[in-house]
Amino acid sequence: MMSSLISNSAVLGAPLPTLMVIPSGIGCSIGGFAGDAIPSARLLAAASGCLITHPNVMNGATLYWSDSRIQYVEGYSLDRFAAGEIALRPVRDQQVGLLLDAGIERELRQRHLQVLDGCQASLGLNVGPVITTEFPLDVRLQNGKSGASWGCLGEPDVLLRAGEKLKESGATAIAVVTRFPDDFGSEALSAYRRGEGVDSLAGAEAVISHLLVKHLLIPCAHAPAIAPLPIDAHLDPRAAGEELGYTFLPSVLVGLSRAPDLVPVSTNDENKKIELQRSLYVDQLCAVVAPEGALGGEAVLACLERGIRLIVVSNPGVMGVSSLALGLHQKLKEKNTSRIISAKNYIEAAGLLMLFREGINFNSLARPLIGIDELE
Question: What pTM was estimated for this model as a whole?
Answer without folding.
Answer: 0.92
